[in-house]
Amino acid sequence: MRTDQPLPPVGGLRPDVHTGKVALVTGGGTGIGRATALDLAAGGASVVICGRRPEPLAEAAKEIEALGGSCVTLSADIREESHVTTVVDRALDAFGRIDVLVNNAGGQFSAPAEEISPGGWRAVHRLAVEATWAMTREVARRAMIPRRSGAVFFIAFSPRRGIPGFAHAASARAAVENLAAGLSLEWSRYGIRTVCVAPGTIATGGLDDHYTPEDRERWERSVPLGRLGRPEDVSGLISFLASPQGSYITGTTVVVDGGADAWGAGHPVPDVPHHLTTPDSSPNKDNP
Ligand SMILES: CCCCC/C=C/C(=O)SCCNC(=O)CCNC(=O)[C@H](O)C(C)(C)COP(=O)(O)OP(=O)(O)OC[C@H]1O[C@@H](n2cnc3c(N)ncnc32)[C@H](O)[C@@H]1OP(=O)(O)O
Ligand SMILES: NC(=O)C1=CN([C@@H]2O[C@H](COP(=O)(O)OP(=O)(O)OC[C@H]3O[C@@H](n4cnc5c(N)ncnc54)[C@H](OP(=O)(O)O)[C@@H]3O)[C@@H](O)[C@H]2O)C=CC1
């Protein structure tokens, strides 16, 4: 199984599983966000995607429309509160409701902890925690609490206990994991589910652009299943969690990482049989 083979949208879910729903995906023009927007649209959801650059958003919208879906794009920097308000205004103007929020936008740089300046720390937490909270609060207050329903997703990191070079980013993601849990205690009464999804290393353009092939190889070696993840490994999970089949899941973190979080530091990663990592020799090609 290779990471350059995308999975088809929707996976095993019914093609009308999200019909009538509206989903807002931050950072929906690229990588995991794009795959998530496509999966939700392929299941029948109308989708709103935002990000700072208009070009990737327009490309993703074209793909969604090619699937027969509806998509609204908005160029916005979610670190600015006024942009958050505008995104929600636009989504409600276009579709009248928001049922699913995927807080996907995020990013960081890799640096030894002692070299992260206060400004660098703040920049990462501002996006991963503060902007995520601003968006979540705005969507909950204006779209979900009044309707007494909704599903909010947060993206964290696996391994979950810390990643060398990512002290700022891993601690920020720990905050959103805790936020998902805490909000479930407060917002279940409104019918709102809050779930954190913790991907391991996923082969996206963002990963290629910001990390070296050596980083990538090192991460790949630390995965018990022997490969990096695909964006669709994450988006398929979110699509399931957003569906009626996921409706009893809230307040928790679901890890999608090829076993990386289960790996005990200090032990060699278990050998993966060759047939599990190559595309054509899988024992069951229909169920890779
Ligand atoms: C094993 C699992 C691994 C998990 C792997 C995860 C992979 C991914 O997440 S892939 C997605 C990748 N995409 C990105 O990471 C996006 C790229 N990153 C960024 O855009 C920035 O890092 C950002 C998120 C911090 C953007 O912030 P912004 O406010 O635009 O940045 P500024 O240039 O204004 O700088 C603010 C502040 O941060 C310091 N800084 C920025 N880059 C670095 C760096 N490479 N090294 C050290 N410090 C950096 C910068 O110096 C500023 O600090 P002060 O000067 O002290 O104010
Ligand atoms: N790839 C991986 O291995 C992993 C990724 N993650 C996380 O998953 C998420 C998606 O990552 P991935 O798809 O790999 O990376 P990308 O870099 O492709 O995705 C990040 C997206 O967020 C958008 N974005 C960034 N900053 C802002 C902002 N201030 N306002 C609005 N949108 C913004 C970007 O668009 P634009 O630049 O145009 O604003 C981009 O579309 C991120 O939070 C990432 O940290 C978590 C675990 C592992």
TrEMBL record:
Pfam families per UniProt = adh_short_C2 (PF13561)
Instruction: Enumerate the catalysed reactions.
Output: (2E)-octenoyl-CoA + NADPH + H(+) = octanoyl-CoA + NADP(+); (2E)-dodecenoyl-CoA + NADPH + H(+) = dodecanoyl-CoA + NADP(+); (2E)-decenoyl-CoA + NADPH + H(+) = decanoyl-CoA + NADP(+); a (2E)-enoyl-CoA + NADPH + H(+) = a 2,3-saturated acyl-CoA + NADP(+)
Q: Which SUPFAM superfamilies match?
A: NAD(P)-binding Rossmann-fold domains
In this chain, the stretch annotated as Disordered covers 265-288
Q: Please tell me whether the keyword Phosphoprotein is annotated for this protein.
A: yes
Stretches of Polar residues bias are at 278-288
- Domain Ketoreductase, first and last residues per copy: 21-234
Question: Matching InterPro entries, A to Z?
Answer: KR_dom, NAD(P)-bd_dom_sf, Peroxisomal_t2-enoyl-CoA_red, SDR_fam
Spell out the Gene3D superfamilies in the cross-references: NAD(P)-binding Rossmann-like Domain
Broad class of the protein's primary localization: other
The pathway entry for this protein reads as: Lipid metabolism
Q: Does the keyword Lyase apply?
A: no
Q: Where in the cell is it found?
A: Peroxisome
The EC code for this enzyme is 1.3.1.38
Supply the alphabetized keyword list. Fatty acid biosynthesis, Fatty acid metabolism, Lipid biosynthesis, Lipid metabolism, NADP, Oxidoreductase, Peroxisome, Phosphoprotein
Q: Which superkingdom is the protein from?
A: Bacteria
Chain's role: Participates in chain elongation of fatty acids. Catalyzes the reduction of trans-2-enoyl-CoAs of varying chain lengths from 6:1 to 16:1, having maximum activity with 10:1 CoA. Has no 2,4-dienoyl-CoA reductase activity.
Its subunit composition reads: Interacts with PEX5, probably required to target it into peroxisomes.
Q: What is this protein called?
A: Peroxisomal trans-2-enoyl-CoA reductase
Tell me the organism. Streptomyces rugosispiralis
